[in-house]
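User: These chains co-purify. Model them together.
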Amino acid sequence: MALIVQKYGGTSVGSVERIQNVAKRVARASKKGNGLVVVVSAMSGETDRLVEYANELSTEPPEREMDLLMSSGERVSAALLSITLNGMGVPAESFTGRQIGMITDAVHMKARIRKITGERLRRTLGEGKIAVVAGFQGVDEKTGNVTTLGRGGSDTSAMAIAVALKADMCEIYTDVDGVYTTDPNIAPNARRIDAISFDEMLEMASLGAKVLQTRSVEFGKKYNMPIYVKSSFTDGEGTLVTEELKEMEDVLVSAVAYDRNQAKITLSHLPDKPGIAAQVFSLVAENGINVDMIIQNTSEKGFTNISFTVPKNETKLTIKTLKPFVGDIGAKGVTADEKISKVSIIGVGMRSHTGVAAKAFTALADASINIKMISTSEIKVSCVISVDEVDRAVRILHDTFNLALPPKKRAVKKKK
Amino acid sequence: MALIVQKYGGTSVGSVERIQNVAKRVARASKKGNGLVVVVSAMSGETDRLVEYANELSTEPPEREMDLLMSSGERVSAALLSITLNGMGVPAESFTGRQIGMITDAVHMKARIRKITGERLRRTLGEGKIAVVAGFQGVDEKTGNVTTLGRGGSDTSAMAIAVALKADMCEIYTDVDGVYTTDPNIAPNARRIDAISFDEMLEMASLGAKVLQTRSVEFGKKYNMPIYVKSSFTDGEGTLVTEELKEMEDVLVSAVAYDRNQAKITLSHLPDKPGIAAQVFSLVAENGINVDMIIQNTSEKGFTNISFTVPKNETKLTIKTLKPFVGDIGAKGVTADEKISKVSIIGVGMRSHTGVAAKAFTALADASINIKMISTSEIKVSCVISVDEVDRAVRILHDTFNLALPPKKRAVKKKK
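Assistant: Joint model of the two components:
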């Protein structure tokens, strides 16, 4: 008997009809003889409604109180799904985060899971019942305060439960039917990926974020818990996120990702001496700014330029942070370019195949797309280009690596 | 420093504006230097909305799941009120039933409170903060399951907390400004009662039910915890429900109550032998029927009639229950009259003054109102009359005992 953890998001349980639909799916999976834990989010719109109330009532709602407020939506969904299952003759019991022993730290609104005691889950499964769990929430053991896990918290709940119970798989049901080779809105010939490695999925954050939270994928990788992403509205297949499989290496590129939400910061004419970069990025980090790509170039003798990218909404803070510093060390200045985007190709095949980056640069050059920054990792090549050219670049890269074809058809032989 | 428990009902916290209004009241009470625990119900309509969902999803929702579902509304109100208070600069913390240690038995949807550990409440008060508590809910200590306290559960929560913390008073805020000498819709000259004894309030269930749950009054009486019922929408005075005060005895009648929801059941021509009544009422009790007034008369030699009243919606069940029995013991039959009502006068003054009942009967007789049944207690006289005459009877009795006048003006000297 397999043990499966299923997670249904807010849109999947967004109405009475949709809860009935989910109950049917759960019942079907249960009839196959699987042990089932079902984690649910709040009905879509519910949490927003509560947050709106809070914002109308206070400009600075205390986070402890917000957690008590926001944790109620998931409890409602869990109870309603359990009620529906029982009504269909499928024995089920609903549980809060506290009841399943979801112990977190005391950081409200973005608590981290410490452990899951899970006794009640095991007992419920042992009685042949389905356990329906309110996602997104836990409890601080020391104070007994309710905590929430932050964005995508229900995914995190599901993954943590799957690991704690040593489940065979964690299925994440959502409103899209999986992970695509790129955004189908940009490249209509994008295809759903059947299986992708944890590492690739992590590099695809910008594509995957809509489908799967980075935190869940990291968790999956750490504990080798396969994640199956699937639509709760259709009966088709989804995407399996899993440890790296041998055949994955035969494909040069698995997906093309992009990120429009980037700005390029440039510090020009810095004195070229040891420790300058360290000073810059310490300062930036202290202010909680998330740096992505970094490039350093020596421009003329004794001077250097540093460029890096940050999320667009952190541009102002970055400039404000660096301005005094720039004056102090006698640099020319700090400038920001918000009209940029990042385009990336991702694939574990890059590790064993050469020439992938060159092929991408050539394709972009042939299309007269100027590359402003380059950064590479073992399984990724990212280029910063003008924001006006991002759609075109995505389509070109998608076609260059034949991503519209099934992986088997574009598999190549290894040549190290 | 006084310690006060305040309870605000669903309509009092029914919108963002109303929550702000409640917060202002709480802040004002706090500024007087009082220690404050504030118990809240779910925003009006919230619980109904959830129950409706459940009923759409199942014809027989399990009670354990219903409790998890229904307990969420109070948590939302508590968090929102606490957020509002903090936003106003008034330190507050919100708590669930479990967090304050509200331990109940395991009877879902109508759990009884076993004890309140209350450590967190004491600590919070000790820190000079207001404790805002989600009413209506507790936790079954053995299983950790969420329980709810049934109808009027938030009142019960408030009273139990007041007793556990040895508070000075429990204030129940609602949408009416107190308890009246009778229903103002029937007698427009009805007046708000300033102070009434627990016993009188219990006898007034039919009037008081809209304002105060019987269970809370019983609790108040048992632990001598004064209850102040007050409107959360106006600034006027309310009604104090308290232990019996000396001056209360000087008033013959405190209020006139009525109950239209009664049916009269008659068993006629029963053999007049010992144990017959016991058999009848054992049978009725076994079927969960709530009997109110009972009258037994001997009609002719060797035979007797028994009449009693039950809630109208239990008429059919009563007839069904007694029909076979009536045949067995050779009675003439069992009949029901649903066109009746009960009118009552209530007052602790009756204990020390004679002639009150006679005065009431005379007043009704003078108005040609026929009395079908009479039942009396130490502080109450109830008459069953035709349902068509109930409004007139209420007005007549209200006027007969001068209830439109302030109690002092109608006080009489004791003559035993």
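The first strand of chain B starts at residue 3 and ends at 8.
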